[in-house]
Design a protein that fits this description.
It is a single chain. The protein is an alpha/beta fold. Helices cover 35% and strands 23% of the residues. The chain has nine helices and twelve strands. The protein has a seven-stranded parallel sheet with strand order 3-2-1-4-5-6-12, sandwiched between helices. The chain has a five-stranded mixed sheet with strand order 8-9-7-10-11, with helices on one face. Helix 2 (49-52) links the parallel strand 2 and strand 3. Helix 6 (131-146) runs parallel beside helix 7. It is elongated, with a radius of gyration of 20 Å. Bound molecules: nicotinamide-adenine-dinucleotide (NAD). The site of nicotinamide-adenine-dinucleotide has 24 residues, from helix 1.
């Protein structure tokens, strides 16, 4: 019988932290909520996490005691800020406890701290925890490897009207995967949004186009356009809870792993 894994949430009162707590408390997994920590200025400090997410009290209060959270957990999940992630990577090293990191916008200092911790414990970092997007990344790389420049690669993404950056990090990652499959660097092939008299499409370019509007959670399509046929690989996210489900799956997988730096493709066996 597999043992129940004790999970600590770093940034437990945030949007993603609450979704992860809800997923753990759903009772569908061999997981127990062991700790919930927050920024010292958080409105949630001292409150039972069950109450925060509209559940019965579960006896786990949101605290600022990170050492106690690392001590009580088999594995932790971090959806916070790059600054907090740096601190959490140092704690992972000190306590030799695995951490799943979903926080985005990490710079080289944070990545270096995560890699240092990975010498002592299992660390996983992924900018997109969706199982489907990670499958798509792997399929795109494989497809780009099999199809030559006779097939034009175009990446389309759609997001809600509030998104401020473009293209999305996931669209960019899809471009990197396609370039890797072709054995080139994305910088040498990237073709961003077009407008006006731009001339014919250069062979081998990897094109990007972007839609913004409404409440779209996130759509991504990679098209391989040949002569006489088109192959389209698409992913459509309709609910942010899929990132929480992916993070929990990653944590359950990571808990018993040897020290090392892991990605979602390791969890999914891709
Ligand atoms: P959020 O602002 O709702 O939550 C972040 C939480 O972290 C807040 O509650 C905040 O108080 C807490 N926090 C900040 N500093 C802290 C500290 N020093 N110690 C402990 N807690 C601290 O944001 P969110 O929407 O939950 O997103 C969090 C991060 O996850 C962002 O970087 C976002 O881009 C990323 N994200 C990643 C994925 C993925 O699949 N990898 C999916 C969604 C969001």
């Amino acid at each position: 019988m597999t043992k129940t894994v004790k999970i600590g949430i770093l940034g437990g009162a945030g949007r993603m932290g609450q979704m992860i707590a809800r997923e753990i408390l759903s009772g569908k997994h061999k997981a127990k909520l062991a700790a919930c920590v927050e920024h010292k200025k958080s409105w949630a400090i001292g409150k039972d996490i069950g109450g925060i997410i509209g559940h019965d009290p579960v006896g786990v209060n949101v605290t600022t005691d990170k050492d106690a959270a690392f001590h009580a957990s088999d594995v932790l999940i971090d959806f916070t800020t790059p600054e907090a992630t740096l601190e959490h990577a140092e704690l992972a090293f000190r306590h030799a406890k695995p951490v799943v990191i979903g926080t985005t916008g990490l710079a080289s200092a944070e990545m270096a701290a995560i890699k240092t911790a990975a010498q002592k414990t299992a660390m996983l970092q992924a900018a997109n925890m969706s199982v489907g997007v990670n499958l798509l990344l792997s399929m795109v790389e494989h497809m780009a490897q099999m199809l030559d420049e006779e097939y034009d690669i175009e990446i389309f993404e759609a997001h809600h009207r509030h998104k401020v950056d473009a293209p999305s990090g996931t669209a960019y990652a899809l471009g990197v995967a396609a370039a890797r499959g072709r054995g080139i660097k994305l910088e040498d092939a990237i073709m961003p949004a077009r407008f006006g008299q731009i001339g014919a499409r250069p062979a081998g370019a990897i094109g990007f186009s972007v839609f913004r509007g409404g409440d779209v959670v996130g759509d991504h399509t990679v098209t391989f356009a040949g002569t006489g046929e088109r192959i389209e690989l698409s992913h459509k996210a309709s609910d942010r809870s899929l990132f929480a489900k992916g993070a929990l799956k990653a944590a359950l997988w990571l808990a018993p792993q040897k020290p090392g730096f892991y990605a979602m493709k390791d969890v999914l066996g891709l």
